[in-house]
Amino acid sequence: MNNSTTQKNSLARNLTSAGLLLAIGLILPHFFTAFGREMGTIFSPMDLTVLLAGLILGWRYGLVLGIITPIISSFLTGMPPLPIAVTMMFQLGVMGLITGLLRNKVNRLLNLIIAEIIGNFLYAILFVIFMGLPTHKFYHLLFVVFVIGLPGIILQWIIVPYLSRVLKKAGIYNG
Q1: Cβ(119)–Cβ(91) below 8 Å
Q2: Separation of alpha carbons 26 and 30, rounded Å
Q3: Residues 119, 95 contacting (CB under 8 angstroms)
Q4: Which of 104, 115, 126, 174 could make an SS bond with 98 (beta carbons 3.0 to 4.6 A apart)?
Q5: Contact call for residues 48 and 40 (beta carbons, < 8 A)
Q6: What confidence score (pLDDT) does residue 172 get?
Q7: Does the CA dihedral 171-63-148-31 come out positive or negative?
Q8: How many whole angstroms separate alpha carbon 160 and alpha carbon 174?
Q9: Distance (Å, whole) CA 64 – CA 163
Q10: Can you list the domains of the chain with their CATH numbers?
């Protein structure tokens, strides 16, 4: 197989994987919210697919999926509601970007920790700005994001590295 064919196959595989992760990112939150709306806040299921995209497909796919997943979900389902979807576009875009940039530089868990800290801080800052909240609400929002969302963050730290290893062994990606 020549280099051009290999590149086309790789692009097709990456686009297919990105499409599948987008679909999962749109559907998965509904499974969690079936048990109550707060389950989406606690487990952040959309984050999982974006982090995985950055880790297995690289920063471009992670960034794009992070930006488009919350906005498409908002338009299709109303969840997350539009002001929150905009902040999530930045949050998830940055998380996908960082996991993609760091994917071959640090181990998977450290990669996710760095991406989640930066993405969640950005979310809290932008939420306060976009909603016109007083700056002291920033700390309350950080509490909500990191403490209430801790079960989801821990779940992501377990599932995302595991899935990336499984997909690598299966030959889905070579990162």
Answers
A1: yes
A2: 8
A3: yes
A4: 115
A5: no
A6: 76
A7: negative
A8: 16
A9: 20
A10: 3-169 (1.10.1760.20)
What sign does the CA torsion over 102, 80, 149, 25 have?
negative
Residue identified by tokens 């576009």 is 89
Question: For residue 77, what are the contacts with CB-CB under 8 A and spacing of at least 6?
Answer: 26, 30
Which tokens sit at 122? Answer: 């950005």
**DSSP label at residue 149:** T
2, amino acid identity: N
**Rounded Cα–Cα distance for residues 157 and 111 (Å):** 10
Q: What is the pLDDT of residue 108?
A: 95
78-137 tens-digit pLDDT: 999 988 999 999 999 999 999 999 999 999 999 999 999 999 999 989 988 888 888 888
